[in-house]
Structures are given as structure tokens and as C-alpha cells.
Amino acid sequence: MKINTHNKIDHKLCGKPIELKEGFACVTMQTTKEMVVDEYSLIHGGFVFSLADHAAMLAVNHPNVVLGSASVKFLMPVKPDSQLVAYANVTSVNNKKQEVNVKVLRDEETVFEGQFICFVLNDHVLSTTKGKS
Q1: Which of 14, 19, 27, 105 is deepest in the core (most CB within 10 A)?
Q2: Which residues of 65-89 are buried (b: 16+ CB within 10 A; e: fewer)?
Q3: Rounded to two decimals, what is the model's pTM?
Q4: Cα–Cα dist 27/87, whole Å
């Protein structure tokens, strides 16, 4: 299946797609020391969220998809050199609104889970025709 969204994303920062089908995406990311926030080598949660968000966008896979809101839980700390895998499933479609459940695993442990509310707009959110969607 062709990727229709987020084509210029940095895979080192937000994850690399490894499986994509209608309503589903699997994205993987290797954490690095550049993502560390403190002397305990904790990876900043924003990187884990970014991976999950990227997976959600790919599960919707529309050029004009945007995130409206997210309800998330950080369940386990993450350190450098962790291989994370995000699984995103579209669970509901109602007109332009799509709900996507995302789970991020490190090995067999769930480190993050969330529900993402995505919207598919008629035009790109930054297009000059904004407001007509």
C-alpha cells in the first residue's frame, strides 16, 4: 500500500513504517542518546508520542489528515537503544473524524497506549483555501 501522508518526516525522530494496510500501520523506531533528558538516561516522552502519532497518521493514510486530540498513557520509561514498535488501528470512522488506537511496545512490554482523534480535511491545514474544509 502506498504511503499518502507525512512523506517528508524524519524516520530517525518519528519512526519508520514497516507495515501498512487499510486502517492499520506498524512503525518502528530505535531510541538514541540524543533523545535523553537526564542523568538516568530517560528518553523524552515526546519522541514516544511522535512515534505513536506517526503510526496513527499512517493508519488513516490521507494527505490531509491532522491530529485533533489524543488521550494517552505513558506506562513504562524508555531508555536509549530501545527498539520501539507502534501498532495503530483505525477503530471508528464518522465522516471526517477517525479514531485510532495506538500501542507502543518495547519487546513484549507495552510502554505507551493512546487514542488519537484524527480529521481528514478537504484541503491541507496550511493551504490557502483553509477554512473551506
Answers
A1: 27
A2: bbeeebebeeeeebeeebebbbbbe
A3: 0.94
A4: 7
- Quote the cell numbers at residue 61: 493514510
Give the position of cell 511496545.
105
- Determine the residue type at 71: S
Q: How confident is the model over 94-129, as pLDDT tens digits?
A: 999 999 999 999 999 999 999 999 999 999 999 976
Which domains can be identified in the chain, with CATH numbers? 11-120 (3.10.129.10)
Q: How far apart are CA 4 and CA 107, in angstroms?
A: 29
**DSSP secondary structure code for residue 46 in this structure:** H
Which three three-digit cell numbers place residue 10?
A: 524524519
